[in-house]
Amino acid sequence: xxxxxxxxxxxxxxxxxxxxxxxxxxxxxxxxxxxxxxxxxxxxxxxxxxxxxxxxxxxxxxxxxxxxxxxxxxxxxxxxxxxxxxxxxxxxxxxxxxxxxxxxxxxxxxxxxxxxxxxxxxxxxxxxxxxxxxxxxxxxxxxxxxxxxxxxxxxxxxxxxxxxxxxxxxxxxxxxxxxxxxxxxxxxxxxxxxxxxxxxxxxxxxxxxxxxxxxxxxxxxxxxxxxxxxxxxxxxxxxxxxxxxxxxxxxxxxxxxxxxxxxxxxxxxxxxxxxxxxxxxxxxxxxxxxxxxxxxxxxxxxxxxxxxxxxxxxxxxxxxxxxxxxxxxxxxxxxxxxxxxxxxxxxxxxxxxxxxxxxxxxxxxxxxxxxxxxxxxxxxxxxxxxxxxxxxxxxxxxxxxxxxxxxxxxxxxxxxxxxxxxxxxxxxxxxxxxxxxxxxxxxxxxxxxxxxxxxxxxxxxxxxxxxxxxxxxxxxxxxxxxxxxxxx
Length: 488
Ligand code: AMP
Ligand code: ZN
Description:
Rossmann fold; Isoleucyl-tRNA Synthetase, Domain 1; 3 domains; four-stranded antiparallel sheet; 14% strand; binds adenosine monophosphate; binds zinc ion
């Protein structure tokens, strides 16, 4: 079987995955900025990396998965200007900045739990690692690749570019990058247009501030990931991930900071997930098209026709490869809901399937195809197509149209356990709107039992009345040799 192949943004090639220190794998993913609720687009990125983490674990790697929480250093402008997002939100909600951080961190965890994501091994915060960031900035200054102006420290991109390739991650030359940026004004403290802040001087009104060799201030956004990934995963680690929108600035600057500090490339494989879009436009807080997972679960949003269970949404995301865009629509979600229910229904069928002494299918081959799909850059889309082959086989075997031996059935159960539950992270108990379904199932068991008792006691008037009343409520009963079944 082919080894795991990963598309590396840095080299723009698919490469065989060879961890630096097997079986250990270091995985760092840029986490959320916790000044507001995460929207479904953010969730797509975190769910994609959850699948990648799950698959690495499934292959037997010992993964240290670090996903940070950005709780400081995020200004509104992307050029080190504007208000601090946390301070602004704190004022608006009349809370302490740290209350904002706590509120939205807890909300983020709740949402990811709904989507059945595994927690990271370490979840470090920017505010908990101020001294590490200061140390790193001191090293970059000592190497002559940053400068201080009135209490703010800037990274010197032009000077850095004499020695290193600044635009390597997006494969762009310095001149091209310069073309895309504004001229510096007379007020600017920066030497060059691409320079970015490592440390920002506090204004009198700045609430979140720390003392540093350059006076009171707070760290820039990019330095936190360089400092924390280095602390927990070492100078150079295996995989760094995030959404594609982070490539051009945040991740480009992370590479520059690490190289400027200790002269090594920080990351072997850069992985980027593509965006969730709505009518072709990227879902984002600023575009106003970002609905919250809770709105999706309840259907309480103008873009939604109704609510969808978290596992249906997770399945919907897994149906598209993580490097392709995924466009949100009600129709697509409804199709995913049907597909998800078929997948789960057929698992129930599989559990009660009768073995035959001969076999008409090559289940081992199907299992290999599942691995091949995942080993080809985590192609969950193809994996799911193979899982629907399993569904077809199970249903045909159940209809006695083909034969499966006990070992075929056991292998199909293993495929479900490994790929559906373990790697895709889907849960069985979430078919439809799970809690209501569970209650309804219990009530229906009871009602059918009552009806059976009425029939046994020859009270046909009552048994027919129960059947008709249920039909009027939209529930159809089918009487068979092995008892009665029902459907909505
Ligand atoms: P933020 O909280 O804005 O820093 O974003 C957290 C993560 O969500 C980052 O990795 C972003 O790249 C990612 N992200 C933001 N918008 C989208 C989107 N529409 N689709 C997928 N990922 C997104
Ligand atoms: Zn980051």
